[in-house]
Amino acid sequence: MRRIRRALADDGVAAAVARHAGELPEARTVAVYRAVGSELDPASLAEALVSMGRTLCLPAVIDRSAPMSFRRWTPGDPLEVDAAGCPAPLPLAEVVTPQLILTPLLAFDDFGGRLGQGGGHYDRTFAAMPDAVRIGLAYAGQRVERLPVEPHDIPLHGVLTEVGYTPARKAGPA
Fold first, then answer.
1. For labelling, which of 3, 39, 147, 172 has a CA lying 20 to 30 Å from the CA of 11?
2. Rounded alpha-carbon distances, angstroms, from residue 103 to 74, 121, 133, 172
3. Beta-bridge partners for 167
4. Is 89 helix (H, G, I), strand (E, B) or coil?
């Protein structure tokens, strides 16, 4: 799936995703992320969300075995590397609770299944923030028929790709 995602990586697709910002569920505070490697870059989407009046935040990993915290962020604010090696707002940034969390992924299915990077950061965070709306941000080509899920896997509410927002379907028999 990493190879497939690398092949799909394209800045034009990221701009196309931003055109669908209005399809996301309503939320005052939205958690975005800073793309690493071939992850779909949400920078254009972040700008669109700011123009819609949404407050943004970025995750910060303080303890690799704990849920992430979220710090208020505006595009252009300074960043530093967190405990997971990802860009995060400085510690003096306000800690906030997002109502909607956008998450990168390697693969997704129509039932809310998400294959992440393997660190468990988002699943731990989703478990600690059960009321947050969980949306995958991906290239449409990352969709698979069905992902195996384990008890600790927290399903997504939907996925946003270059073709638009798709809510997760109720899972039927595997």
1. 147
2. 18, 10, 11, 24
3. 158
4. strand
For 3, phi then psi, to 5°, come to -65, -45
Tell me if 28 sits within 8 A of 99, measured CB to CB. Answer: yes
Q: Give CA–CA dist 41/49, Å, rounded.
A: 14
Q: Where are the domains of the chain?
A: 2-167
Task: Report yes or no on whether pTM surpasses 0.90.
Answer: yes
Residue with tokens 């997971």: 84
Contacts of residue 1, Cβ cutoff 8 Å, sequence gap at least 6: 106, 107, 115, 142, 144
Tens of pLDDT, residues 118-173: 788 999 999 999 999 999 999 999 999 999 988 888 999 999 999 999 999 976 55
The structure tokens listed for 125 are: 């965070």
Q: Measure the CA–CA gap between 44 and 21, rounded to whole angstroms.
A: 10
Query: Contact at 8 Å (CB) between 31 and 68?
Result: no
Kindly report the length of the chain: 174
Residue 137 near residue 49, CB atoms below 8 Å: no
Residue 145 exposure: Cα atoms within 13 Å on the Cβ side: 2
CATH topology of domain 2-167: Rossmann fold (3.40.50)
